[in-house]
Amino acid sequence: MLKFPAPFPAAVFVCTNKRPDGAPKPCCADRGGVQLREELKQMARDQGLEGRVKIFASGCLGGCEQGVVALSYPKNELMLGVKQEDLQRILDEAVG
Hints:
The chain is an alpha+beta fold. The protein has helices at residues 33-46, 87-95; strands at 10-15, 53-58, 70-73, 77-79. The protein has 2 helices and 4 strands, in the order E-H-E-E-E-H.
């Protein structure tokens, strides 16, 4: 196995998990996770932060009942109930 340093110092994983219709738990995709991830990614591009933070789509991170869920590295913060108005703060904290 080869190991290399990541080409970016921070990452944010936004849950975009889609559960089958009728699943007993909610999913972040149905609560806007896909759109929030795309918006956060576009904000990073617009602010010239592409080399400083990478925005990833993720599978289930847990906390489904309180989604949309996001996870920030290297700060190791799990964020529950993420909404559009939280995105700038998430980006600021990731690169700050």
